[in-house]
Each structure stands twice: as C-alpha cells, then as structure tokens.
Amino acid sequence: MFSAIGRIIRTPDLRRKIAFTLGIIILYRMGAHVPSPFVDFPNVQSCLSESAGTQGLLSLVNLFSGGALLQLSIFALGVMPYITATIITQLLRVVIPHFETLHKEGQAGQAKLTQYTRYLTIALALLQSTTLVTVARSGQLFGGTGIAACEQLLTNDAWWAQLLMIITMTAGTGLIMWFAELVTERGVGNGMSLLIFTSIAASFPSAMMAIWNARGFEVFLLVIAVGLVVVALVVFVEQSQRRIPVQYAKRMVGRRTYGGTNTYIPIKVNMAGVIPVIFASSLLYLPLLVAQFNQPAAGQEPAGWVVWINNYFSTGDNPLYMAVYFLLIIGFTYFYVAITFNPVEVADNMKKYGGFIPGIRAGRPTAEYLDYVLTRITLPGSIYLGLIALVPLVALATVGANQNFPFGGASILIIVGVGLETVKQIDAQLQQRHYEGLLR
Q1: Dist. CA 237–CA 377, nearest whole Å
Q2: Whole-number Å distance between alpha carbons of 166 and 133
Q3: Whole-prediction pTM value?
C-alpha cells in the first residue's frame, strides 16, 4: 500500500489531479461554513448546539450538504438540487420520447440532457432556497423547539433581504455544480459523487462524538465495531453481481472478421444504488409536511389525523414508521430497476451484433430470460437496501444517535460506493504508467 502511495506521489500527472481534487474539496467545505446575508450566525450556532436537528427530508438534505443547510450558509442546499434534477431527467425518459431519443444519440444527446439537467437544477435551487428562507423566517427550521434563539434566525425580514438570500443560495448551488464538473474534467473520480462523499464524511466526527457523550466510551467502541462489520458487508454486496454469459458469432465485414468472443452481462445485486432510500425518505416526509401546515390555532385541539401522524411519523424510532419505510424501499427498488434496465433493449442490441446467451434463443426469449433473472436478483438487493436503511433508525432507538448516524442508510451506501469507484480510477491510471496498480 505504501509503495503504491509512493508511486502516486512520483507520478506528476496523477499528483496534479489529486491535488486539484483536494483543493476543490477544501473550497467546498469552506463555503459550507460561510453564512448567507442577513443570517444571525450566533443564534444559528446556539440552535445547533441546543437542538437535536430536524427529521425526515430536511435531515437528509442537511446530511448531503454536510451540515450547511441548518447553518443557512451560501452552500446550504448542497448537491440535493442536482441529485433531484438528475433523477427527474432519468424518469422523464420513460414519459417523454424526446428524452429517450437524446439518450440514444450518444455524446451529443448526452450533452443536451446534461444541459437540461443544469437548467432544472437552477430552477429547483430557486424553489428550495425560497422554501428554506420561508421556514427559517417562521422559526420552524429546527422543528419548533421553543428555544428563543431559533425564533430569530434572520436579522432582516424585508422582502429584498429575503430575495438576496434566495439569490445567494441559488448561486451557491450553481457554484457547486461548476466545482463538480471541474473535478470530473481535471481531477480524479466523479466530481458530484466526491462532493457528496465529502459532505457525508464531514458529519462523521460530530455524529460519533454525540454517541460518546450520550452513552459513554464502551457504547462508542461497540458502535465502531458494528460499523466496521456493516462496511464489510456493504462492500461485499456492492461488489456482488450475477454474470450472464454472452457469445458473439463470427461475422465478416469486408475483409475483416468480427465477433467470435465470449463475454458476460454483469447484473449487480444492488442495481438501484441509493435512489430508493432517497425516494422513500422523501415520500415519508410528505405526511409530516401536510400535518405541519394544518396545526390548530392557540387553545384549540389538533385534528385526529394530525395527532396520529405526529405520533407515528414524526420520529424514526416508531415500529410502524420502520415497517412502512422498509416496504417503500422494496417497492421503489423494483420501480427504479425497471426504469433503468430494459431487457428488451439489451436483447435487441445483442441480436443486432450477433450475440446470444448459450441455451437461450435470441430476441424475445432472451428478453424474457433477462427479465426473469433481474426480478429474482432484485429481491435480495431490495431487502439488503431496506435493512441498511433501517440501521440509523435502530441506532436512534437504541443508542440515542441522531438520524445522520454514519454507519447505515444513504450515508454508508454513498461512502462505500464512491470510495470504491475512486480507488478503481486511481488504480487504472497507475496501471497505465507502472503496470502495477493500487489494488492487489
């Protein structure tokens, strides 16, 4: 390992790329602590120290922003608008034929889809920043804790001051998007994935210190041990795949012979990644959001359905919440895999280039076989995602951790996935120059 690190340092091109990536990450983390205009920074810090934070979707957004959301910084929205825009663009391929046509046009079509994603990101950033400023102005950003400092988070309530805050946060989202593209072009790894990795990793120390302060050193060591086991299991499942063998018949094109090779179609156990967890968290937050807008006036009793939602869906340690969360993740996993992997398209491409699965006829039988394998392998993948997503909720109920518990949920899936892909890219670049990579 140390010799591989030495080779990285001695390779000028790779050294420059890693240094550039680290520089962008430092700038990103610095921006996460720069407050937006007209934000009462001492009051915000007081709320952060005295409050346990937020629940539901705001907790997820705060996790992806590296804690910048609750600090109302210039990077408060983080990468969440871009993630949402990317997911929407992928889903629109099923609904709008023009998007599917662009997807099949190669590099030119992908560039056009990327441009649409950028425009949609700015539009979502405007919407989300407006919502965030409105919630901060109403004193509900920290869930109505009753702390006096949390009622006065802004120093100026004028419309022009709020407009300036919205513009600043939207510009911050655009700057983050530019940072990510710079890292992708001139650095190492996927820029947006690395910024998400950085945001989640930044919350690890505070989350672990909260467990140490609340439960003591013994529970802290136990959580570390369980976390290492969870990480090992996640790495094992993320690397697991079903390889379907494919053979290509020989064919003559002019005077050249093509085909005659054996390859395989890799179908991962977890093809959906972290997307079902984000979908389920967002959907479960909607009832709580509706209940917050239907709070009764002072002195009046709340409606029965509002009380029921507050009792069962306001915190993640309720068994009903966990059961619904688990089932939603399984459903969204099947839904997202069905959208992103089209067996008919794969079978048609194989038939076009003379490929076939041994023992399976080309065309429709191949598509049916791929669909059969995909359905069977998605079941353990969806159960795995649901169990991993429940780890922070179980920790919340047992050791008093917050919902940003690092060893589970979306955080551990992103940390492991991005870490593996980045190490593989560094390894590939080392092998190009030294014939010996980072991995053994």
Answers
A1: 12
A2: 7
A3: 0.80
